[in-house]
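Email to the structure team, subject: Major sperm protein model.

Hi all, the expression group asked for a predicted structure before they design truncation constructs. Nothing fancy, just the C-alpha coordinates so they can compare against earlier work. One-line instruction: predict Major sperm protein, return C-alpha coordinates.
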Amino acid sequence: MLEKLTLYGPIQLNPESLPGDPQLTNMRNQPFILDEIQTNPKSKIYFNVPFDKSCSMRMTNISMKPLAFKITTNHPDINISPDSGSLKSHKFVMVVVKINRLSSKYVNSVMKIEWTDWIEGESIDEIFEADGVFRKKNILVEFNQ
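Reply from the structure team: attached below.
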Protein backbone atom coordinates (compact mmCIF):
# COMPACT_ATOMS: atom_id res chain seq x y z
CA MET A 1 0.00 0.00 0.00
CA LEU A 2 1.27 3.48 -0.87
CA GLU A 3 1.23 6.36 1.59
CA LYS A 4 1.40 10.10 1.02
CA LEU A 5 2.85 12.21 3.83
CA THR A 6 0.83 15.40 4.47
CA LEU A 7 0.64 18.05 7.16
CA TYR A 8 -2.06 15.96 8.83
CA GLY A 9 -0.09 12.73 8.85
CA PRO A 10 0.22 9.85 6.39
CA ILE A 11 -2.69 9.17 4.04
CA GLN A 12 -3.28 5.75 2.51
CA LEU A 13 -3.43 5.94 -1.29
CA ASN A 14 -5.96 3.69 -2.96
CA PRO A 15 -5.04 3.66 -6.65
CA GLU A 16 -7.30 1.88 -9.11
CA SER A 17 -4.26 0.09 -10.45
CA LEU A 18 -0.60 0.10 -9.55
CA PRO A 19 1.51 0.76 -12.65
CA GLY A 20 5.29 0.39 -12.55
CA ASP A 21 5.76 4.18 -12.21
CA PRO A 22 4.23 5.51 -8.93
CA GLN A 23 3.78 8.96 -10.56
CA LEU A 24 1.23 7.41 -12.93
CA THR A 25 -0.93 6.25 -10.03
CA ASN A 26 -4.51 7.53 -10.26
CA MET A 27 -4.83 10.09 -7.46
CA ARG A 28 -8.12 11.72 -8.50
CA ASN A 29 -9.79 11.22 -5.13
CA GLN A 30 -6.81 12.10 -2.94
CA PRO A 31 -6.82 15.29 -0.82
CA PHE A 32 -4.69 18.16 -2.08
CA ILE A 33 -4.00 21.54 -0.46
CA LEU A 34 -4.38 24.25 -3.10
CA ASP A 35 -3.57 27.31 -1.02
CA GLU A 36 -0.28 27.76 0.75
CA ILE A 37 -1.62 30.88 2.45
CA GLN A 38 -4.79 30.63 4.50
CA THR A 39 -6.73 33.75 5.44
CA ASN A 40 -9.31 34.36 8.13
CA PRO A 41 -11.77 35.67 7.01
CA LYS A 42 -11.50 33.46 3.93
CA SER A 43 -12.87 35.60 1.12
CA LYS A 44 -14.52 38.85 2.33
CA ILE A 45 -13.90 41.71 4.74
CA TYR A 46 -16.86 43.85 5.80
CA PHE A 47 -16.80 47.44 7.02
CA ASN A 48 -19.88 48.86 8.74
CA VAL A 49 -19.43 52.48 7.68
CA PRO A 50 -19.18 55.07 9.09
CA PHE A 51 -18.47 53.21 12.36
CA ASP A 52 -15.74 50.70 11.42
CA LYS A 53 -12.49 52.25 10.28
CA SER A 54 -10.29 49.14 10.54
CA CYS A 55 -10.50 45.36 10.32
CA SER A 56 -7.98 42.59 10.96
CA MET A 57 -7.20 39.55 8.88
CA ARG A 58 -5.10 36.58 9.98
CA MET A 59 -2.82 35.26 7.24
CA THR A 60 -1.17 31.85 7.86
CA ASN A 61 1.52 30.04 5.87
CA ILE A 62 0.37 26.40 5.84
CA SER A 63 3.17 25.19 3.56
CA MET A 64 6.46 23.58 4.52
CA LYS A 65 8.60 26.44 3.16
CA PRO A 66 8.97 30.18 3.87
CA LEU A 67 6.99 32.49 1.58
CA ALA A 68 7.26 36.12 0.48
CA PHE A 69 3.94 38.00 0.21
CA LYS A 70 2.65 41.30 -1.12
CA ILE A 71 -0.86 42.76 -0.64
CA THR A 72 -2.39 45.44 -2.88
CA THR A 73 -5.84 46.98 -3.24
CA ASN A 74 -7.69 48.86 -5.97
CA HIS A 75 -9.25 51.30 -3.46
CA PRO A 76 -7.20 54.52 -2.99
CA ASP A 77 -8.37 55.12 0.62
CA ILE A 78 -7.57 51.66 2.02
CA ASN A 79 -4.25 51.21 3.83
CA ILE A 80 -2.85 47.75 4.56
CA SER A 81 -0.25 47.03 7.24
CA PRO A 82 1.94 45.09 6.66
CA ASP A 83 1.53 45.21 2.89
CA SER A 84 4.49 42.90 2.22
CA GLY A 85 6.89 40.64 4.06
CA SER A 86 8.00 37.08 4.63
CA LEU A 87 6.13 34.34 6.41
CA LYS A 88 7.91 31.30 7.85
CA SER A 89 6.42 27.83 7.62
CA HIS A 90 3.34 27.38 9.86
CA LYS A 91 3.51 30.98 11.16
CA PHE A 92 0.91 33.72 10.86
CA VAL A 93 0.73 37.50 10.67
CA MET A 94 -2.16 39.80 11.57
CA VAL A 95 -2.88 42.18 8.69
CA VAL A 96 -4.68 45.43 9.56
CA VAL A 97 -6.90 46.93 6.86
CA LYS A 98 -7.77 50.60 7.53
CA ILE A 99 -9.95 53.16 5.80
CA ASN A 100 -8.68 56.72 5.62
CA ARG A 101 -10.62 58.74 8.24
CA LEU A 102 -11.61 61.42 5.75
CA SER A 103 -12.79 58.95 3.13
CA SER A 104 -16.32 59.18 1.79
CA LYS A 105 -15.76 56.74 -1.08
CA TYR A 106 -17.35 53.54 0.12
CA VAL A 107 -17.11 51.49 -3.07
CA ASN A 108 -16.67 47.73 -2.85
CA SER A 109 -13.15 46.74 -3.84
CA VAL A 110 -10.65 43.89 -3.95
CA MET A 111 -7.46 43.14 -2.01
CA LYS A 112 -5.00 40.99 -3.94
CA ILE A 113 -2.58 38.79 -1.98
CA GLU A 114 0.36 37.50 -4.04
CA TRP A 115 3.00 35.11 -2.75
CA THR A 116 5.96 33.08 -3.91
CA ASP A 117 8.85 31.13 -2.41
CA TRP A 118 11.13 33.20 -0.17
CA ILE A 119 14.61 33.77 -1.61
CA GLU A 120 17.18 34.22 1.17
CA GLY A 121 19.17 37.44 0.95
CA GLU A 122 16.84 39.29 -1.45
CA SER A 123 14.37 42.07 -0.71
CA ILE A 124 10.62 41.67 -1.26
CA ASP A 125 10.75 44.04 -4.26
CA GLU A 126 13.58 42.03 -5.86
CA ILE A 127 11.67 38.78 -5.35
CA PHE A 128 8.49 40.11 -6.96
CA GLU A 129 10.33 41.81 -9.86
CA ALA A 130 12.12 38.57 -10.80
CA ASP A 131 10.65 35.82 -12.96
CA GLY A 132 9.05 32.99 -11.05
CA VAL A 133 5.86 31.26 -10.04
CA PHE A 134 3.49 33.62 -8.24
CA ARG A 135 0.23 32.56 -6.64
CA LYS A 136 -2.59 34.92 -5.74
CA LYS A 137 -5.78 35.12 -3.77
CA ASN A 138 -8.44 37.83 -3.91
CA ILE A 139 -10.24 39.11 -0.80
CA LEU A 140 -13.37 41.20 -1.39
CA VAL A 141 -13.76 44.38 0.66
CA GLU A 142 -17.40 45.34 1.11
CA PHE A 143 -19.04 48.31 2.82
CA ASN A 144 -22.39 48.00 4.63
CA GLN A 145 -24.01 51.40 4.62
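The domain at 37-144 is CATH 2.60.40.10 (Immunoglobulin-like). The mean pLDDT is 81. Ping us if the truncation boundaries need rechecking.
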